[in-house]
Design brief:
Rossmann fold; Helix Hairpins; alpha/beta; flat
Length: 290
């Protein structure tokens, strides 16, 4: 995994924080200095935290876990949808539906409803509906697709969340904490990093900063998925070799059994011949004449 350099973070404007009067005291360890009333984030600490989060993401992906990306703010919507869709991970970019994690069964019902509408629209009975009914179905389908289309393949609770701006997505953070789901997040100087398991101190308002961090996370996930695929292929090859070895071992055992059978049968035949000769040598009893 390629390490993000200090210069890349600097060029992306990752170091720019919020105004001093908006700061959260828990962010003090990650603040380098104040300039013109604005806090400057320590990029060396950002670099270390980014690498730590990327390694954790890679391990999650390697073990086959799903990571849900949450970013509903305007600057991050398109970036997240473009980058995350490449690695087939679920994401929420429109609106966080309350209870998505704590009431996951209801969300799954809505997803199934969308699937049923798709089946109905592809069937012959759809043409028998009135124009108004078809229009209502299409509108309902578009609404469900907008809110839930990106999580249609999420059949169970995600193993982790990646959040852009934890103040805006405070409901998602609260639900994840309630269910003990690990959280990764871009944390600005106005946020509380103690709420997040893997905080990345960075500017969560600039599109360049968001893009750099999201791209680093998706590359780490992609590497983890690649390692998982290689491990699977290796295991399947080993299984094939083991089966071949077992077959050859069985054939070898069969050959030994046939040889032993032949060896055991040969002395038996020789003894039978010797017994016949002995019987031939015995004198016959004289036949009495009357």
């Amino acid at each position: 995994m390629s390490k993000v350099s200090f210069e890349e973070l600097l060029d992306a404007g990752v170091h720019f924080g919020h105004l001093r009067r908006k700061w959260n005291p828990n962010m003090a360890p990650y603040i380098f200095m104040e300039r013109n009333g604005i806090h400057i984030i320590d990029l060396y600490k950002t670099q270390a935290k980014l690498e730590e989060a990327a390694n954790a993401m890679r391990q999650l992906a390697k073990s086959g876990k799903k990571i849900l990306f949450v970013a509903t703010k305007k600057q991050a919507k398109n970036i997240v949808s473009e980058e995350v869709s490449k690695i087939n991970m679920p994401y929420v970019t429109e609106r966080w539906p309350g209870g998505m994690l704590t009431n996951f069964a209801t969300i799954r019902k809505a997803v199934r409803k969308m699937t049923n509408i798709d089946k109905l629209m592809s069937s012959d009975s759809y043409t028998n509906l009135s124009k108004r009914e078809r229009l209502q179905l299409r509108r309902e389908r578009e609404k469900l697709e907008k809110n839930l289309g990106s999580i249609a393949d999420l059949s169970r609770l995600p193993s982790a969340l990646f959040i852009v701006d934890i103040l805006k997505e405070h409901i998602a953070v609260a639900e994840a904490r309630k269910l003990n789901i690990p959280t990764f997040a871009i944390v600005d100087t106005n946020s509380d990093p103690t709420l997040i398991d893997f905080p990345i101190p960075a500017n969560d308002d600039a599109s360049k900063s968001i893009s750099l961090i999201i791209r680093t996370m998706t590359q780490a996930i992609e590497e983890g998925l690649g390692e998982r695929k290689l491990a699977k292929d290796k295991r399947s090859d080993e299984d094939v070799h083991d089966d071949d070895d077992m077959d050859s071992g069985r054939r070898f055992d069969d050959d030994e059994d046939s040889d032993d059978h032949g060896k055991k049968g040969a002395p038996a035949k020789g003894k039978a011949d010797e017994a016949g000769k002995e019987r031939g040598k015995r004198p016959r009893k004289p036949v009495s004449k009357k």
